[in-house]
Write a structure and sequence with these properties.
Layout: E1 49-52, H1 58-69, E2 73-78, H2 81-93, E3 98-102, H3 108-122, E4 127-130, H4 147-165, E5 176-181, H5 194-201, H6 208-224, H7 237-260, E6 264-270, H8 287-298, E7 310-312, E8 315-316
The structure holds NADP nicotinamide-adenine-dinucleotide phosphate.
Biased composition (Polar residues): 24-36
InterPro entries: NAD(P)-bd_dom_sf, SDR_fam
GO molecular function: oxidoreductase activity
Length: 322
Amino acid sequence: MYKYPRLPAPDGLPPVSHPPRSPLVSSSMDYSSTKESPPAGAWWSRETVAVVTGANRGIGHALAARLAEHGLTVVLTARDGARGEAAAAPLRARGLAVAFRRLDVSDAASVAEFAAWLRDAVGGLDILVNNAAVSFNEIDTNSVEHAETVLRTNFHGAKMLTEALLPLFRQSPATSRILNISSQLGLLNKVSDSSLKALLLDEETLTEAAIDAMVSRFLAQVKDGTWGAQGWPKVWTDYSVSKLALNAYSRLLARRLQARGARVSVNCFCPGFTRTDMTRGWGKRTAEEVADVGARLALLPPGELPTGAFFKWCTPQLYSKL
Ligand SMILES: NC(=O)c1ccc[n+]([C@@H]2O[C@H](COP(=O)([O-])OP(=O)(O)OC[C@H]3O[C@@H](n4cnc5c(N)ncnc54)[C@H](OP(=O)(O)O)[C@@H]3O)[C@@H](O)[C@H]2O)c1
């Protein structure tokens, strides 16, 4: 049984011996003159590459900035070129190692183009933060009018990008990580359909096909208008189903990678109710506060890095509640 670590302080991280990395090959990503350096004893270096999706605003932007402030090289991605460049430029002006690349996670061609660029121009990645997501509801509404877009972006998009980038992780000892920004709205305790709960809980028999089928079933019920009485989460149902699927996929992927001996960890992080555009500015914390904790989770020392965990703020949750 894994014993979960308490979050370390951002400084005071233990030194970890590290094999040399292949250098970033693109001259457009030569950040040798940038100002921020990793803190003494950090396991990462300026050559450690973190990709953050949906990073032109909100939590993604704050997290990209925070990782760059920790001294990593950050690929800030956004689906809109102008918005992405406008978000990256002020960070670069501060001397941070931030590159912008366009990426629409819901578009297969965009994902393929991004993966090819990352492989050829950057040489791979070490950290992937799947942050991009949409919700079309007000705080107190529960329309499923945009369910297809919500599922295509929040679940299928994150999965498609993850699968495309998996071969590009530079699998240095225990340092390759995927952090999926998820939500407690997609925890198992929000599901009242007992057979669905049982399916998702049975780690030995759950498959990716079963998760995909669950999502298809929900979308079919949205189409025929029967979704309301099927035991799905009651709040922001389409968004919650997208995070339910993302949580289940993350757990399964963690097991798949572990079984294969691949040294890439996969964890989920729920930031809690945060004041961003998604919540129309409502929430109990700021994107910057979330970025602080998110960056610390993304940068956990290799010896303390779990896989298959779901962090609700700083606290890992029991799987039975996932
Ligand atoms: N805010 C909360 O209370 C809260 C709570 C729990 C979890 N979360 C999660 O935290 C993450 C960030 O949310 P947020 O509150 O920062 O939301 P936000 O302010 O609405 O930002 C969402 C970001 O995702 C991008 N995005 C949307 N669709 C995309 C696509 N197809 N391809 C690429 N990027 C896309 C948006 O880009 P555009 O600017 O182009 O639209 C934007 O940059 C999400 O995963 C969300 O589910 C948030």
